[in-house]
Amino acid sequence: MPERIVVPFGPQHPVLPEPIHLDLVLEDETVVEAIPSIGYIHRGLERLIEKREFTEYVYVAERICGICSFMHALCYSQGIEEIMKIEVPDRARYLRTIWSECSRLHSHLLWLGLFADGMGFENLFMRSWQLRESVLDVLEDTTGGRVIQGTCKIGGVRRDIGAEKLAEMHRALDPFEEQCRNLGDVFLNDETVKYRLQDLGVISKDEAYALGAAGPTARGSGVAIDHRETGYAAYGDLGFKPVVETAGDCYARCAVRVKEVYASIDLIRRAISEMPEGPLDVKVKGAPDGEYFSRVEQPRGEVVHYLRGNGTKHLARARIRTSTLANIPPLVKMLPGAQLADVPVVVLSIDPCISCTER
Amino acid sequence: MSTMAFLKRSPWILHYDASSCNGCDIEVLACLTPLYDVERFGIINTGNPKHADILMITGGINELNRAVVRNLYEQMPEPKVVVAIGICAATGGIFRECYNIAGGVDKVIPVDVYVPGCAARPEMIIDGVVAALSILEEKRAKMTGAAQIKDDARHAAGEST
Amino acid sequence: MGIFQMTKTVLRNLAGGPATRQYPAVPARTGPLTRGHVVFDPATCRSCSLCSKRCPCEAIRLDKEAKVWEIDRMRCIACGDCVEGCPFGSLTMEPEYFAPVVEHVVERYTITYVKPEKPAKKPVDESAGA
Amino acid sequence: MTVNEEQTTIGVALEDLMREVEGLQTGGYRLVQIGCTDIGGAYEVNYSFDKGYQFRNLRLTVGPETEVPSISGIYWGAFVYENEMHDLFGIPVAGINIDFKGTFIKTAEKYPFSVTRRGGDRCRNA
Amino acid sequence: MNWLIGAVLFLILAPIAGGLIAGIDRKITARMQGRVGPPLLQPFYDVGKLFEKERAVVTTAQNFYVLAYLIFIALSGALFFAGGDLLLIVFAFTLAHVFLVLGAYAVHSPYSHIGAERELIQVMAYEPMIILAAVGFYMVSGSFYVTEIAATTVPAILYLPGVFLGFAVILTIKLRKSPFDISTSHHAHQEIVKGITTEFSGSTLAQVEIAHWYENVFLLGFVFLFFAWNPVIGVVAVAITYLAEIFVDNVTARARWQAALKSGWLATLLGIANLAILSYMMLGGA
Amino acid sequence: MQTLLFLIVFPILVACLLLFVKRTTIRYAVVALSALAIGGASIYLLMRYAFEGAVYFAAPSGAIDLAMVAIEMGLALFIIYMGAKFRNYLAILLAVIQAALVVYLEMTFSGSLHAANNLFIDQFSIIMALIIGLIGSLIAVYAVRYMETYHHHHPEVRDRQTFFFFVTFVFLAAMFGLVFSNNLMWLFFFWEITTISSFLLIGYSETEEATKNAFRALVMNLLGGVAFVVAIVLLAATEPTSGGIDLARVLASPDAAVVLIPVVLIGFAGITKAALMPFSSWLLGAMVAPTPVSALLHSSTMVKAGVYILVRFSPVFAGTFAGFSIGLVGGVTFLVASAIAISRSDAKSVLAYSTIANLGLIAACAGVGTYMLVWAAILLIVFHAVAKALLFLGTGVIEQRTGSRNIEDMEGLIVRMPKMAVMMFIGIAGMFLAPFGMLISKWAAIEAFVQVPFGLIFIAILAYGSAVTVFFWAKWMGKLVTVTQNTERVEKGFFEESWAPLYIITGLVIAAVFLFPVISSMLIEPYVLAIYGVTAHLADANVAIMLLMMALLLILPVSFLLFKRTARHLPAYMGGRPATPDLHFAGSLGLTREAQTRNYYLTEYFGEAKLFRPGAAVCIVLILVSWILAGVAL
Ligand code: SF4
Ligand code: SF4
Ligand code: SF4
Ligand code: SF4
Ligand code: SF4
Ligand code: SF4
Ligand code: SF4
Ligand code: SF4
Hints:
The complex is a heterohexamer of chains A (359), B (161), C (130), D (126), E (286) and F (634).
Chain D: E1 6-12, H1 17-26, E2 30-38, E3 43-51, E4 54-62, E5 68-69, H2 79-89, E6 93-94
Parallel strand pairs in D: 1-4, 5-6
Antiparallel strand pairs in D: 2-3, 3-4
Chain E: H1 2-32, H2 42-52, E1 56-57, H3 61-81, H4 86-106, H5 110-141, H6 146-151, H7 156-159, H8 161-174, H9 202-226, H10 231-250, H11 257-285
Chain F: H1 2-18, H2 24-49, E1 55-57, H3 63-85, H4 89-108, E2 119-121, H5 123-153, H6 161-180, H7 184-202, H8 208-237, H9 239-242, H10 247-251, H11 256-273, H12 280-285, H13 291-300, H14 303-312, H15 314-317, H16 321-342, H17 347-368, H18 371-402, H19 413-416, H20 418-432, H21 437-450, H22 455-481, H23 499-532, H24 540-555, H25 560-563, E3 568-569, E4 584-586, E5 592-594, H26 603-606, H27 608-633
Helix pairs in contact in F: 1-2, 1-6, 2-5, 3-4, 3-7, 4-8, 5-6, 5-13, 5-18, 5-23, 6-7, 7-8, 8-11, 11-14, 11-16, 11-27, 13-18, 14-17, 16-17, 16-22, 16-27, 17-18, 17-22, 18-20, 18-21, 18-23, 20-22, 20-23, 21-22
């Protein structure tokens, strides 16, 4: 009869770069109970809205999280634009799409690396992050920042990408895609990786839907929700289909992300070739009055910015619900029954981003 | 009492994400990867305070992590240095005025090097570690010196009795 | 067949040599847009205080009376908003990073711009430290 | 294929909340979020649901001390939002399936978003 | 007196060789990962550094067990290079590991204990194969003594290919290489922090590291025995074997303990099959 | 011969005396003095006969034989009575069969029921006598204090201490008789006495469980007893070629095929008594008895009678397929029982499985029966007896002191009961670490099996088995040495006297390593030489290395002094969470939790439920095969 082991897992833990803590109750190494707890990163930036004008708040929104910083800025800006009925110029919409997808690329590659690290596959981690650097280089060249871009603003974008740079990016996409596909092959076909991922942390389609799972966590279980389908930014013009896997295990969630990497490359390619000319932004006058639930598909799933203006320069409320928060209930269901060695893998399989979760 | 100073050639780091936005965080991790490869300098990210020489903290101090940061710092054997990565870790950065942010890391533990930037970039982080190394070496010298003094005192006491 | 999928990468890495950018032997890679740090030109600043108002981090402080312009390097997020906002081009964003320091740095400049017809340009008194 | 997103907000009374939520659940909606807003002396609690990108929002308005029933019996995952509601706003939620009892998000100042929070310093340049 | 020279040489040279091997290992690993990697002498810097650190313990007893671990690892290696009885060496080797495990147990710490349990699982996984390898050598050379095994003129590897493969599997466990670096790991982060070495720091950790160097040299010596009939081929084979281990380390994810145990035991079965065929041939031949 | 008789008769006298001693102090004095006498006598035996080889004594028979039969009938009646009382009809049936067979034997073969010499002694018997005389009597001494506390803790159990010690000493007497008998009828008589004694001791507490387990032991041993009688009947029937009931003659029998069947049957009796699979359950059930009983059963008596008989007859097994499959029964038992021990957290249960495993190993050696293996088997018997006695007695002390015999509850024993922890540590080390005896014996066994045809099977079993053994012992050791914080010492105040036997046995465990070369060259090697004409021994160089290791082990603790000085004490790593020194930390849901470190039990792979039945099934098949093969050989 196995005895119960109680292990304090985190907040500081080598495998999870962000502080999340779990009280693990194990029998031998099988998890019987895992209660997560957060709060180590809570800053309280929603209330910063009281101290920042709504235009300045974009900088704060970007720093809700440094990984999909662009997406947060985008989600926030789109919300304000919706309230203020601002029509964003076409070129800006396309540029936003390109940067969004670059963010998704670097985020997914980052995640793939961390995931490999979680499985103890150091070389794969190195390779993923090496590829990610090429995306970061593009981001730096086009926005001036590697991880915090600072190019999205209300009413459009702050920088353009010149034709020359666009052409260069387009040329670079093919070799990059090939490298990504080689990397993806390892994740999808390597036996040791499969052994670590398959049948682990299974969430059925119905369960995923009922628990409100978001993003690849939902899509890995066969729930086809992807907010890009609503056609914000330029997605409506580019045509978009969500990537869906049905197994609901860690392998499926990984596969979704691998395939989304390919899909992102494709979207960028199309966005570049269909890039319209035109202005980058429109002038923002007045202050927002009204409310809107702005939703954007982040690498980790849908994020909701609930924005409510009261006609002044300061919003009355900004409430940010991120995908990781929505994915915590599925995570709680996934852990019991896993092995201790699988705990980081399962936790990482929802791609937790504590920073934006806790705000 | 060695004067070899291996410490400078083998700084092992412990990275903790206090309340950063992940931006600086992932740049710290990026340092380990092929393009920056800090292992060139003998740096290893240990993830275990008992093995670490340099504590790298990203993000500011909030209500909950205050005790964690102090705990990690105390778990590290001397000599040790603290490198605050990013302006959040220096002053709280853009979140300085948030109700849950008490300020930079130096509110809780002594910080030896500040790496500014938002996000701090891998190259700056490398520079930060290099700056930390000489401080680390200073601390080691002081430590062995102190031990020497203590030793001498003990000898003196031993002889007098 | 799925075993050792990583072999290709390993062999390529061995054959191709390391991808490492040899910083610091090789200078850091930056682009023209790279936001490194803000540089202030005391000779052209007209103390309009727009920069300090726009700054989301309260990193810039301006004392119009004393003609002092300060930037707290430990607060600046290098967003570039002040640079964009300065109507007189007194601020520029340099791609080089601000080097790590052992103490908080607040840079203080005395504005040398003089209103008269011919603006005399001479940089004076640049002191770092806090 | 692009789906047009629609957002509808329906006010709901406290006593109807559970019924409405159950209705949405049987209707195949998923829970997107629960969020609160301080509207001066009272809270608006938004229960947001979605089905095929059609966004439905139940809006409950409650006084500062009113106890709100938990919907975690219907939507298991609601506990994250309800704990947050309690920790940040101080709204008492009754019967959460996983009740963190005020430790979900620990804050330096208690209930930082509550209507009774101190200060009205809306301007940083004061 | 030959045996004494072997033992003394081992005690002096093994740490140097072991540290260099570790340095080469890290360099090659880095290259396989597209990185430059640390200087060749990095392992020595690391150990030197550890000796410079403050002595910090959770409980004083931990140092005692680690020292015992080091001493007995060195002893078993020395016995090996002195040409002693292989079985006795294997048992001394086990004793050493039990001390390491006890060191981790002595500390009342969850991660340390989990590491200790996993280390024991590893011991359980590799021990049968090591014993079997010793028996295999006996069947080929008619002796358990390393001196005599090393002196045989028959190429042991030809008779013991299965045993060698099995040994290669457990060598991965012993060198703490992926996929079997479950109890503590030299690289890639691990869910149990640093497992068995979590609570060791400073000079104690340095001792663990030095013991590991001793151990590696000893293990490579063991590999050499398979090829001992021709020293040149032997050295080359040892190098190739080690390279293969580094390679496997770099192309696999870490396994769970179940897989480590099963692999170790299946490897043993392979060895048994090999020996069964061998003994059948010998019976038939006789 | 007087010494032999003294060792058999004196304990019986003491037993009768103890029936009338009610005060603990007086009982302690009596037991301690008799222990001294018995121990002294066995040492005298050693000095007197060690260099003489086998010596035979024509002890008076006739009247004694009759008395024995009478007592056997009486015992049968007693079993029938008990069986009726507790409705265990199987026991009655077996007792009746056995009695009937004995009567049949006496009636039909009275002519061939005599041995030239009823008693004998050789080096093997001396070793057994030493084990019984030293370890057995030390356990008896320990039991005096233990039983007093036992009744203190268990007021619900009827106090029958006088009876308890009576049976204990009868038990010792029977064991002496058993190892000195050359007459198989005598041997069988003592054999039956040990069965009954253990039955009475296991059922001591008179609880339902105790009674049930006592009967299980009884039934299984009676089964062996029946086989034993059948064997004697067969031997008596084939007296001219087989040698009848004269042990020496049977062993020297010219017609090995004839004696093989009876010897295999006796081997079967040995298997039941040695609690090999599938009969292990009686020994496991015996754990309900007070700890000294377990110590007795496991280390110096009872099961040792089982393996004694197997080793005695191993020259007959040697080289036969029947013997080989008996050896396999032992081998499988060794592997399965060791594996199951992993999944147990009850200290006594672990000890029990480990005993079964080691008996299995001894049986494996005996069954295959080459000279080297017999040498190894006897080594195993010796080392197992000392180390196991220490462990049982230690567990008993710990249980009485801390209220638990769960291994998990022994966490931090090094802080709470440092002396006890060190003794347990040594005991456990004695079970599986180089250079202690058990490991040396295993090593010897491996070297021996290599040279046996098909020995590879045993090598494989040993390789896996010893790996498994390392796992469960080391994790137990680990629990002992964990330095916990904030735990009080509970060692003080324990009856100081009961430490004496523990100290002595601890000394014996260590001494066994140093004396091992002496024991081997003085007793075991001559015995093996006498029987096989060749003998085994360890190479001198290896002995030297082992002694060096032992010396290192003894010196190492001195290095402790080195560490005392400057180290700074840090709390354990708790994921950065602030925690108290006793590992309480702030957990989720606002609860304060305690980090718990527990051993692994790997039940999924090594659970009793998973392994016991398959193991038992394999062993049953092997036993049947051994009979068939014996039959075929004929
Ligand atoms: S999910 Fe949130 S925290 Fe994570 S990368 Fe995106 S915005 Fe950042
Ligand atoms: S300094 Fe900037 S990038 Fe770094 S953690 Fe703070 S907000 Fe994020
Ligand atoms: S204090 Fe900061 S925010 Fe306020 S005016 Fe000065 S620079 Fe601007
Ligand atoms: S760059 Fe941004 S943060 Fe820095 S001073 Fe200018 S506006 Fe402020
Ligand atoms: S720097 Fe530019 S914006 Fe700032 S005060 Fe001077 S002129 Fe105005
Ligand atoms: S403008 Fe003045 S009164 Fe108004 S909120 Fe700001 S500080 Fe307060
Ligand atoms: S008046 Fe309003 S917008 Fe202006 S500074 Fe004050 S709070 Fe901000
Ligand atoms: S800072 Fe000055 S201008 Fe801005 S809101 Fe406050 S008072 Fe008004």
